[in-house]
Amino acid sequence: MNITNSEKLFAEAKNYFPGGVNSPVRAFKSVGGSPIFIKKGKGSHIWDVDNNEYIDYCCSWGPLILGHANDVVLNAVNETMHNGTSFGAPTELENKLANLILTFNNYIEKIRFVSSGTEAVMSAIRLARGYTKRNKILKFEGCYHGHVDSLLVKAGSGLITFGNSSSAGVPDSFVNETITVPLNNKQAVTEAFNTYKNEIACVIIEPVPANNGLLIQGKEFLQFLREICTENNSLLFFDEVISGFRMCFCGAAGMYNVKPDIITYGKIIGGGFPVGAYGASKEIMSCVSPEGNVYQAGTLSGNPVAMSAGIAQLTECLTLNFYEELEKKTNYLVDGIMKNNSFSLFKIFNLGSIFWIAFTKQQSISNAEEIDGDSMKYFKILYHELLKQGVYLGPSGYEVGFVSQAHSYQDLDKTILAFKKALTLLK
Ligand SMILES: *Cc1c(COP(=O)(O)O)cnc(C)c1O
To answer: Given this model, what pLDDT does residue 345 score?
Structure first.
């Protein structure tokens, strides 16, 4: 496999950007080797600057549920763009996207658009604190919520802990407002509420944790969080930046039928453009400026080009059997790969069109501690072999893969075959 041009560009990029990239995982550090520089994408395929072609299961880390350069999205963007790209004043497009999101949502009544998932979470945390007049937040080890200061906290030792910052530059005083507990552990959550009575503004969770493997939680645990939050006048915060519009139009909240107080969205709602959103009841959202005193603003918030991409993409997602088809394809892929995996070297966990390859003997994995970090050496081998055979996954064994509407059964069959060949190397 020739990647000379990618290597050249990466060498140059290292002069410009820390580690040569604008987001760390792109640097291929966890799989080794040089990152592939992408030239173009269409449907389920991407091409690199050396003209290698890949079937893409990264899909920009989730946003591209219709695949690359979808014609409906491109047409909408094109039309909007020619009338100006940003006004810093309201446009009808914001109403339209908000209407699409809210009409089918039983849990939130108003939203605010921002420009990334991180920004949505950061703003919603401020809202939760402003609304409850409390400072502490409870999060789960193994959930990612963007690079918000107070959420870059990993568990220390012990069941409930003020963790350690997982990044330099986060003051201890911030870390001290964040309580970290393991996923799928009622006892830890209960203890946290007992210890910090009337101090916890919100419990934030990815209802489908998909940023550190795919750590599927049971409905019962999410329902338990709902109840304990209600009892303690804390807000339940579902970070649906990945899960929103992924398994169904009503998100994980709808799928599990558990009511959060605050929801954040991102990724899919922007159709490949930078959009995030946070939403809640009218009452909670009335705390947001200019109605209330929780300040939050953005020069490019509700950007018309991004809004039109989001509207086009979500409208497609509403078509009949959209999610059923996606799930069917994903199951076909997973079953196909596993049929050839007779030594059970790894498992694939999947939900809707999200899948995660885990080198484990366990039947299920529901918290971060159960992931065997050592097993990532196998993922590395698998990764490069798949790449050689034209299958592109996100470059880390902790990352999930996505099947898009654009993936054909021919793509899936090719991928199954590529896995079969790659597996011979792993034995
Ligand atoms: C991707 C993601 C974020 C961060 O969104 P960005 O757009 O990368 O800032 C936050 N929360 C969850 C659950 C995510 O998957």
So the answer is: 86
* Fold held by 4-69+320-423: Aspartate Aminotransferase, domain 1 (3.90.1150)
Between the CA of 182 and the centroid of ligand 1 the distance, in Å, is 20
Average of per-residue pLDDT values in the chain: 96
In 247-281, which positions are buried (b, 16+ CB within 10 angstroms) versus exposed (e)? bbbbbbbbbbebbbbbbbbbbbbbbbbbbbbbbbe
Q: Does the structural domain 71-317 have CATH classification 3.40.640.10?
A: yes
Q: What is the pLDDT of residues 255-288, one digit of tens each?
A: 999 999 999 999 999 999 999 999 999 999 999 9
> Where in the sequence of the chain do the CATH 3.40.640.10 domains occur?
71-317
Instruction: Say if residue 164's pLDDT is above 90.
Output: no
Ligand 1 surroundings by CB, under 6 angstroms = 116-118, 121, 144-146, 206, 211, 239, 241-242, 266-267, 276
Ligand 1 centroid–CA 188 distance in Å is 25
Asked if pLDDT for residue 161 goes beyond 70, the answer is no
Residue 4 makes CB contacts below 8 A (sequence gap 6+) with 50
Q: Is 144 considered catalytic here?
A: yes
DSSP summary character for residue 287: T
| 50 touches 4 (CB < 8 A) | yes
Residue intervals of the chain classified under CATH 3.90.1150.10 are: 4-69+320-423
Question: Are 183 and 367 spatial neighbours (Cβ–Cβ below 8 Å)?
Answer: yes
Taking residues 407-411, report their average pLDDT: 98
CB atoms within 10 A of CB 361: 11
Distance 2 CA to ligand 1 centre (A): 33
pLDDT tens for 77-132 read 999 999 999 999 999 999 999 999 999 999 999 999 999 999 999 999 999 999 99
For the CA of 264, the nearest atom of ligand 1 = 11
pTM, entire model = 0.97
